[in-house]
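User: C-alpha cells in, sequence out, please.
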C-alpha cells in the first residue's frame, strides 16, 4: 500500500483533499474554491460611453468571500485602450460586491477577476 492509502481525507496538513473542497461554477460569471480557502471569481459586464466623465457600476460576486477579497483586476475588451480607464473603488467594495470605476468614449465590455478567501 502506498502512503496515500494511509492518509485521512480533509483539508488539513498531510490529508488528501476531498473533491467537495473544490467547489466551482464554470460559467461566464463564475468561481472556483480551492482547499486552502482561496477563491477565484471572474466575469464581465457591458458599459456605455461615459462621454469623458467617470462612470461606476457595482457587481455582485457569484459567491461572497467568507473573509475578504485580496485582489481585483479588470480590463477592457477594446482595440484602442488609449482613452479608456478602469479601476475599482475599495471604499464601496465588500466581500460580496465590487464597485468598478471607468472612463470610455464608446460602448465596451469589462472583464474582471477577483481573488479572496
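Assistant: Sequence out:
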Amino acid at each position: 500500500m502506498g502512503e496515500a492509502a494511509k492518509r485521512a481525507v480533509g483539508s488539513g496538513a498531510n490529508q488528501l483533499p476531498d473533491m467537495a473542497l473544490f467547489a466551482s461554477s464554470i460559467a461566464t460569471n463564475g468561481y472556483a474554491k480551492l482547499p486552502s480557502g482561496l477563491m477565484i471569481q471572474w466575469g464581465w459586464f457591458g458599459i456605455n460611453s461615459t462621454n469623458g466623465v467617470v462612470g461606476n457600476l457595482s457587481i455582485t460576486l457569484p459567491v461572497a468571500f467568507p473573509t475578504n477579497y485580496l485582489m481585483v483586476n479588470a480590463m477592457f475588451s477594446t482595440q484602442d485602450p488609449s482613452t479608456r480607464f478602469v479601476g475599482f473603488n475599495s471604499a464601496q467594495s465588500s466581500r460580496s460586491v465590487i464597485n468598478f470605476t471607468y472612463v470610455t468614449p464608446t460602448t465596451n465590455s469589462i472583464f474582471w477577476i477577483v481573488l479572496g478567501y
